[in-house]
Amino acid sequence: MAVAALALGGIGAPTAAAATPEPPPASELTLRLEALSGPGFLNRDLPREVVLECEPAGGSHPAAQDACRSLLRVGGQFERLSGQGACPDVWEPVLATAEGTWQGRAVSYSEIFGNLCDAAVGTDHVFAF
Q1: Cα–Cα distance for residue pair 102/32, rounded to 1 Å
Q2: How many other CB atoms are found less than 10 A from the CB of residue 3?
Q3: Please, is 21 exposed, middle or buried when counting C-beta atoms within 10 Å of its C-beta (0-12, 13-18, 19+)?
């Protein structure tokens, strides 16, 4: 009896499944904000850079899910992003850039905005970091 019990002991025991690596995100972008120089400009905390991953949302962007949602609405076309909100009428220009891939296609985007607020609002908060 003892031999039969030992032989059957392995039946029904859970086996360790091989760990399936997670697929890489469908989109991975490096977003950067840089100050354009000029007399009296106060953008001393620039440049800033974050990584935005989408599908699934992640990376170092502080609001990755919202930023991914905004980009999904426009098919990853940064130039189609827009938002609503008021910004101060202060000229402290910043350069917003994005490099990487969006759903498998290469992305290279750059645009100059009047200030950090304009960059955030004008891109539906994708550049709010």
Answers
A1: 16
A2: 7
A3: exposed
Query: What is residue 18's predicted lDDT score, i.e. its pLDDT?
Result: 61
For 75-89, how does the pLDDT look when each residue is reduced to its tens digit (9 = 90+)? 999 999 998 999 999
- What is d(CA 110, CA 97) in angstroms, rounded to the nearest whole number? 4
Handedness of CA 57, 75, 49, 35 (dihedral sign): negative
- 96 has a pLDDT exceeding 70: yes
Residue with tokens 């891939």: 101
What pTM did the predictor assign?
0.78
Query: In whole angstroms, how far apart are CA 117 and each of 3, 32, 110?
Result: 75, 14, 16
N- to C-terminal Cα separation, the chain: 69
In whole angstroms, what is the distance from residue 61 CA to residue 63 CA? Answer: 6
Q: Are strands 58-59 and 94-102 parallel, antiparallel or unpaired?
A: unpaired
**Average pLDDT, integer, range 86-108:** 95
